[in-house]
Amino acid sequence: MNTDNEFAWRNELRKLRGDVEPPRDLWPQISARIAVRPATQRWRMGLGIAAALIAACGVGAIAWRTQHQASYPTVARASNAVPGISADSAPLAWAVPSNPALAAAARDLDAANVQLQRAIEQNPRAVFLVGLLNRTNDQRLRLLRQESSAG
Q1: CB atoms closer than 10 angstroms to residue 106
Q2: Statement: residue 73 has pLDDT above 50
Q3: At a CB cut-off of 8 Å and minimum separation 6, what does 140 contact?
Q4: What confidence tens digit (pLDDT) does each residue in 103-139 have?
Q5: Predicted TM-score of the model (pTM)
């Protein structure tokens, strides 16, 4: 870089340090351009803002619902208890399918559910355990639907 040109350039910049008034008033042209803006462009901007607000409200509602979702209730004193698990802690133990293959799957899912609930009690901050519990409950409910549609 040529230091002579840089020195001259910096020197010229120092001379410009004050306020510079434009030779004419610029506001009338600016306001005329704003007024001429087509109405469709204003509508598009308004619709874009409305869409963004709706999306933000939807995301907020989903987040709130996820945080305040009720857990699956447990059934006390089931008649068809899962082997090795007390009837007080086995969720959905009352709904054991009549099909032996589905009944075995139901017992496995109930046992996994109880183990996950115990693990969550020991470590309540383990979010991945809650996800596993939710998936286990979803599988158990799908099993119940399959039994009701087959039977």
Answers
A1: 23
A2: no
A3: 91, 92, 106, 109, 110, 113
A4: 888 888 888 888 988 988 998 888 888 888 888 888 8
A5: 0.39
Share of the chain above pLDDT 70, in %: 76
Scan for tokens 């996994």, then name that residue: 112
Percent of the chain surpassing pLDDT 90: 7
* pLDDT at 88 exceeding the cut of 60: no
What is the distance between the alpha carbons of residues 110 and 81, in angstroms, rounded to a whole number? 10
Q: How many residues does the chain have?
A: 151
The token pair at 151 is 């039977």
Give a three-class secondary structure readout of the chain: CCHHHHHHHHHHHHHCCCCCCCCCCCHHHHHHHHHHCCHHHHHHHHHHHHHHHHHHHHHHHHHHHHHCCCCCCCCCCCCCCCCCCCCCCCCCCCCCCCCHHHHHHHHHHHHHHHHHHHHHHHCCCCHHHHHHHHHHHHHHHHHHHHHHHHC
Neighbours of 114 (CB within 10 A): 20
